[in-house]
Amino acid sequence: MISRTLTLTILILGLAACASPRYQSVYRYEAPTNASGSACLEVCARKMAECREQCTIKTQACLKSLEPRVDERYDAALKQYEMELERYRHELLHYDLQLSLNWGRPYPWRYGLWPYSWSLPYYFPPATPVKPSRNAEFERLRHELCDVDCGCQPVYDTCFLACGGKKIPEVQCISNCPK
Q1: Residue 118 lies in a domain
Q2: In a domain, 98, yes or no
Q3: pLDDT in tens, 73-119
Q4: Which range of residues forms the domain containing residue 78?
Q5: Residue 27 falls within a domain, yes or no?
Q6: Cα distances (Å, whole numbers) of residue 110 to 70, 91, 166, 168
Q7: For 110-145, what is each residue's pLDDT tens digit?
Q8: Model's pTM, two decimal places?
Q9: Which sign, positive or negative, has the C-alpha torsion 154, 155, 158, 160?
Q10: Residue 132 and residue 75: Cα distance in Å, rounded?
Q11: Which residues contact 11 (CB under 8 A, 6 or more apart)?
């Protein structure tokens, strides 16, 4: 028995020590060195700022339009919670009845040779339902409908490359990095 646990422990520690490093692809930007390239990059930066501003306006409008939907979803979630709460109340009464009549342990031999098998309940208590949150519903809707990429970065990258800049792909280690 000891050799089996020792072998299993050594195996787990060996696998944990062999965790491979994780890498991520990133880009390094090199700006053009001439004056016309620098002026062109200012235009690119302006376009990027305008795109982000439009994206912010679009996101704010989307967030404002979510309010009625959030209320609808929250009301539906509250109705579902009330039904689950009623079912929980019924299951809890059933559970209490089973325990009070000692029907929780009808067959002591069911648990095998475990020395304390007589103390284990046959019926387990029901799971308590979780009350919904309006903020959670809002965040779920925001993530579904308003977290949309506006596409500003590809436009900037195209402009940056057209101005004579260089976009150099690199790979960086982000975890379990070798020393």
Answers
A1: yes
A2: yes
A3: 999 999 999 999 999 999 999 888 877 776 655 444 444 555 555 55
A4: 36-175
A5: no
A6: 49, 23, 71, 66
A7: 445 555 555 555 667 889 999 999 999 999 999 988
A8: 0.57
A9: negative
A10: 9
A11: none
